[in-house]
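Reminder to self: tokens first, then the designed residues, so the page reads top to bottom the way the pipeline ran.
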């Protein structure tokens, strides 16, 4: 048998994407062929027919509940934080209410996370003048073959007189500090680079004082907050410089989207 080499497609420049999200950049770094399949071939994996709700749906529900809660209580927290968050979660859960797994396992876990969130959110809100959720942003990079647009949708941005803190909600394990610092997990640093240039809607240009993950498991522990131990502005500047180099490299038709 003759071994088959990994595919190395080299599409024309006009077919290569000029707009990508921060999550796409992570895919591009880890597996260029995956980006090629998604954004040039237009392929998406299909869920099995009749598949039960899984981690993806759980993540959507948690994000939806936290977004509903934050939009409704941007200025001040309600008296019953946990109960109000669960009301938002029940609205998000409505489409899955008939599923026994959701009723038996997901809702109790979300309730445990809501209790953790209620105990910790007042501290996060101290000194905050503005809080926004699911906010869109972008930054344009000059490249050999024309402008390239980096897009993002931040889960949460807290604004204070000293700067902004960008938060990413996770239902699974977030990347560790080393993965973020090494550029393997560039999402939050790239969002910091967008914020540093005033690229998020409704938020003025400001220093980024922190990058934060909030993990919503509902297990043990029910929730966990982690601030990346590095200078957010330096990380943002490094990752946007790396992205500029990556875009320039793929602006050469000789560069292949190799499968890794």
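Designed residues (260 positions):
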């Amino acid at each position: 048998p003759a071994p088959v080499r990994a595919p190395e497609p080299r599409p024309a420049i006009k077919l290569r994407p000029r707009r990508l999200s921060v999550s796409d950049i992570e895919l591009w770094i880890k597996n260029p062929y995956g980006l090629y399949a998604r954004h040039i071939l237009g392929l998406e994996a299909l869920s099995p027919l009749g598949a039960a709700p899984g981690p993806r749906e759980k993540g959507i529900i948690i994000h939806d509940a936290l977004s509903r809660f934050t939009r409704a209580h941007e200025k001040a927290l309600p008296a019953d934080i946990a109960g109000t968050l669960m009301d938002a979660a029940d609205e998000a859960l409505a489409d899955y209410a008939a599923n026994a797994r959701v009723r038996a396992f997901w809702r109790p876990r979300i309730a445990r996370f809501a209790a953790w969130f209620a105990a910790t959110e007042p501290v996060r809100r101290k000194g905050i003048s503005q809080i926004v959720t699911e906010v869109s942003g972008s930054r344009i990079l000059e490249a050999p073959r024309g402008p390239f647009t980096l897009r993002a949708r931040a889960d949460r941005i807290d604004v204070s007189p000293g700067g902004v803190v960008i938060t990413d909600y996770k239902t699974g394990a977030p990347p560790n500090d080393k993965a973020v610092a090494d550029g393997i997990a560039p999402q939050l640093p790239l969002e910091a680079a967008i914020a540093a240039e005033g690229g998020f809607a409704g938020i003025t240009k400001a220093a980024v004082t922190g990058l934060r993950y909030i993990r919503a498991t509902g297990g043990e522990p029910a929730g966990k907050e982690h601030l990346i131990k590095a200078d957010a502005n330096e990380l943002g500047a490094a990752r946007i410089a790396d992205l500029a180099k990556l875009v320039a490299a793929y602006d050469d038709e000789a560069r292949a989207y190799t499968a890794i």
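The chain has a mean pLDDT of 94.
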